[in-house]
């Protein structure tokens, strides 16, 4: 079916047609998100073509990321990689489009954070970072000026971590791990550099407390788990907050949790809907 313009609906462009991007596109196509997906781009054109083949209302595949935001869109959704954020966020905002970022680890690079933050103000545009695969961001936002410490313990199956740059640097053999073992402990900035596709949630936690402290991250490998588990413990003048979430991994990409996809879909749905907004 050709894409017919629906008056009043927000127009969305998608950057990255993998696990998250495809499920966002399907949520738009099936009406769960009241919007129109008009343009898509993936560095791997086959991914874009496969996605278009699954959709009733066919978006246009553009030839490069810059062509996404030069079209008359309201919102660009990034579900690609930190590199895609580094290369495209500024031009998207300069083209006066709002931007939703899934690869939130990119913002822990101070220069990228500053460029994006300044561009939001200069071009009067909004960047959205969904809560992703964790719970408790609403409360942490409220107490951000009273936080003393935030610790994230992430437990994953070895398959969720394979291929991360950490293993090139530290020569840890994942197949030799037979029981739950902490393989990394450090700041969120180090975690997103060494595990760029695995711990975006630590970036979100750090960004909430930006300026006061850095989130401490522990990564535990458990060959017997089927879940991506995040335990967050925060404390400060406000009291103490502990949340635990046991996430089911996405069936197409074990690095990505089902909740991260649902969180993105809910954020976009809320942006596209005039309604009572619940939560902080
Ligand atoms: N915020 C969160 O809680 C959270 C949770 C899970 C994943 N993520 C992040 O979201 C992003 C997407 O995750 P996914 O599970 O869909 O990954 P995926 O690997 O399934 O899909 C990513 C897609 O983006 C494409 N891509 C990569 N770099 C690109 C670029 N520079 N330009 C255009 N296309 C590019 C790839 O070809 C691929 O099709 C990743 O960066 C991931 O780390 C965030």
Care to describe what's here?
The structure is a single chain. It is built from ten helices and eleven strands. It has 280 residues and is an alpha/beta fold. The protein folds into two domains: 10-132 and 260-271, Rossmann fold, CATH 3.40.50.720; 137-253, 2-Layer Sandwich (Dihydrodipicolinate Reductase, domain 2). The chain has a six-stranded parallel beta sheet, sandwiched between helices. It is globular and about 55 Å long. The model has no long low-confidence stretch (mean pLDDT 93). Residues 15-21, 41-44, 47, 65, 79-81, 83-84, 102-104, 132-133, 197, 200-201, 253, 256, 260 line the site of nicotinamide-adenine-dinucleotide.
Architecture blueprint of SSEs:
Layout: E1 10-15, H1 19-29, E2 35-41, H2 45-54, E3 60-61, H3 65-69, E4 75-78, H4 82-94, E5 98-101, H5 110-123, E6 127-128, H6 137-142, E7 147-156, H7 166-170, E8 181-187, H8 188-194, H9 200-208, E9 216-221, E10 228-236, E11 239-247, H10 258-271
Parallel strand pairs: 1-2, 1-4, 2-3, 4-5, 5-6, 7-9
Antiparallel strand pairs: 7-10, 8-9, 10-11
The protein binds nicotinamide-adenine-dinucleotide.
């Amino acid at each position: 079916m050709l894409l017919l313009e629906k008056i009043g609906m927000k127009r969305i462009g998608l950057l990255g047609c993998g696990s998250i991007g495809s499920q966002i596109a399907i949520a738009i196509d099936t009406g769960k998100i009241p919007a129109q997906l008009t343009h898509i781009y993936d560095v791997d054109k086959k991914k874009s073509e496969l996605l278009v083949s699954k959709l009733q209302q066919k978006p246009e595949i553009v030839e490069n990321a810059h062509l996404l935001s030069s079209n008359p869109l309201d919102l660009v959704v990034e579900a690609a990689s930190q590199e895609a954020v580094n290369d495209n966020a500024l031009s998207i905002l300069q083209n006066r489009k709002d931007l939703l970022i899934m690869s939130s680890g990119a913002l822990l690079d101070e220069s990228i954070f500053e460029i994006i933050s300044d561009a939001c103000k200069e071009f009067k545009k909004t960047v959205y970072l969904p809560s992703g695969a964790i719970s408790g961001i609403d409360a942490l936002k409220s107490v951000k000026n009273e936080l003393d410490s935030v610790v994230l313990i992430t437990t994953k199956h070895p398959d969720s971590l394979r291929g991360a740059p950490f293993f090139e640097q530290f020569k840890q053999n994942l197949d030799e791990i037979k029981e739950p073992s902490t393989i990394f402990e450090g700041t969120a900035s180090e975690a997103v550099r060494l595990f760029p596709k695995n711990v975006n949630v630590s970036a979100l936690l750090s960004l909430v407390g930006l300026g006061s402290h850095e989130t401490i991250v522990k990564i535990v490998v458990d060959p017997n788990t089927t879940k991506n588990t995040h335990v967050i413990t925060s404390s400060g003048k406000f009291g103490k907050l502990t949340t635990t979430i046991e996430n089911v991994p996405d069936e197409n990409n074990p690095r990505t949790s089902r909740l991260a996809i649902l969180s993105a879909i809910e954020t976009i749905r809320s942006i596209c809907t005039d309604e009572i907004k619940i939560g902080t």
